[in-house]
Specification:
CATH topology of the largest domain: 2-enoyl-CoA Hydratase, Chain A, domain 1
Number of domains: 2
Shape: globular
Number of helices: 11
Order of helices and strands: EEHEEHHEEHEEHHEHEHHHH
Strand order of the largest sheet: 1-2-3-5-7-10
Largest sheet: 6 strands, mixed
CATH superfamily of the largest domain: 2-enoyl-CoA Hydratase, Chain A, domain 1
Strand content: 15-25%
């Protein structure tokens, strides 16, 4: 599944019919997952979902400190589920295969210890928005559009959209997204709290680079522990217990000693992930 080690550039995005690839920046710090079915507007199939879960497992086993999720093509991030692939499944197939596979894939992405960024450079509808919501951060082009339009097809979001959207924007606005099928621009997505940052299309890569630099500047283990603590707190876990355990683990690392020394010496810290 892996590609050659390569910088985080658009050359990672191939024109293959249907594939998920994993590439790494030259220093190995950033993993880039690319979902490419550009000929079909990156509509998701069971194969792509299975391959995404495998990509997440590969990244979890790597030494990467950051994950960037991209898709193929130039105008569309992902239009969601391929209707032709699920329309004839029936109740049992929808429950057993389609919904379950999507949840496994997106949960694998969301559960990575490394922070993740979705780069929304075009339309992100239905499962495409749910894919982006499974990432920790979303950087969106100003002219992009996001929506959860499933009720217009006679169904509902099925890959975590109702839960993750509600966590980000609250119950009332999540209902507006799902029940009215409202489309949000990049600016509106940020104003609602659905996206992290917005930039004109030609400045999108700069916005991604700035957020990436901020995330990579922290001590790797501390950043990953912080992500897991916040996710656990959102699920109701007690911070007084988990923060004590995480703080004890951080205290045993060379990175904490380096961070303290750098603070005292008024210089940038040089973390080694140890």
């Amino acid at each position: 599944m892996s590609t050659e080690t390569t910088p985080m550039t658009e050359q990672l995005i191939s024109e293959a019919t249907e594939q998920v690839t994993v590439g790494y920046s030259a220093d190995g710090h950033t993993a880039i997952i690319v979902i490419d079915r550009s000929s079909k507007l990156n509509a998701l199939t069971l194969k792509l979902l299975d391959d995404l879960a495998a990509a997440a497992r590969e990244v979890a086993a790597s030494s990467a400190r950051l994950v960037v999720v991209r898709t193929g093509g130039k105008k569309v991030f992902c239009v969601g589920a391929d209707i032709n692939h699920f329309a004839g499944l029936g109740a049992a197939g929808m429950w057993r295969d389609w919904i379950a596979t999507g949840h496994r894939a997106f949960d694998a992405l969301a559960g990575l210890r490394q922070p993740s960024i979705a780069v929304i450079d075009g339309l992100a509808f239905g499962g495409g928005l749910e894919l982006a919501l499974a990432c920790d951060f979303r950087v969106i082009a100003a002219d992009a559009r996001v929506a959860l339009p499933e009720t217009g097809l006679g169904t509902v979001p099925g890959w975590g959209g109702t839960e993750r959207a509600t966590e980000l924007v609250g119950r009332a606005r999540a209902k507006e997204l799902v029940l009215t099928r409202r489309q949000l621009s990049g600016e509106e997505a940020v104003a609602w709290g659905l996206a992290t940052a917005v930039a004109p299309k030609d400045e999108l890569e700069g916005a991604v680079a700035r957020l990436s630099a901020d995330l990579l500047a922290g001590a790797p283990l501390a950043v990953q522990l912080g992500k897991q603590l916040i996710d656990a707190a959102a699920d109701g876990a007690p911070s007084r217990v988990l923060e004590a355990l995480a703080g004890g683990l951080a205290a045993a690392t060379d990175d904490l000693a380096e961070g303290v020394a750098a603070f005292r010496e008024k210089r940038p810290a040089h973390f080694t992930d140890n």
